[in-house]
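Example record

The entry below shows one chain as it appears in the dataset: sequence first, then structure tokens.
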Amino acid sequence: MTATAVPPTAHSRTLVAAAVVPIVALGVIVTAVLVVVLGLWGLLVGLVLTAAAVGLRAWQLTHGVRRRVLDGLGPRPADATSEARLFNLADGLAATSGVGVPDLFVLDDPAANLMLVGEAAAEPAVVVTSGLLEVTDVVQLEGAVAWAFAVLRQGELPAASVAVGAVARPRISGAAGGVGGLLVRPFGALLASGHGHLADPDRDLELDRAAVALTRYPPGLEAALASMQERGTALARPDAATAHLWMADPGASVPGLGARPSLDLRIEALRLL
């Protein structure tokens, strides 16, 4: 799979722009009240407060996403000795794909799964569960890691990472109700515009094809998906807001989004290649 024609930064900016609209709307209301109370000084204060709030929110959405996601998961850096085959496969696939080697982490969880996160193209992180390492041989693991490199090569990881805070968490708040839901619900259409970064029914199938194009061996990824299905991909502590960053369903999803293709369907699609 080749890189997309639209730069990832453009997609990230679109998500951020949609995410700050509620703050702008609230700022307009506050500014109007301040104008009534303070006149022109109120207008100035309102505009300054709104601009500061928008800038802070935009900065939060585009900085520290990787750190916050990894802190929430609690993985450890992969060890070059005990996880030597993971490093060797990553090095080989980096040379094949023309993508740099990402930072590698291992999450101690019996589920067989893999995720990527990184709001900056130069700082991606790949998290492999201990369960995936346990159930895959070297050929199967190569197929799974190739899937990660297909994501990196596609160039959409920064936007997908920004979508955690810009789309997924607000959508979850809206579905949960309460004060957060009341604030988010009027902007549901804007959130829906970013759903493509969370639930594209064709994305997994396209990435599977891109992964086997790197390894030139479809049975490797096919066997990896079968092993993942047998072991199970649901994490012990899944976070719905980051579900779209995982290779397979981690056991949680953003409310209102369609289901991802099943592993059975993905395996069958690989058999047809």
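Notes for this example: The chain is about 60% helix and 5% strand. The CA atoms of residues 233 and 249 lie 6 Å apart.
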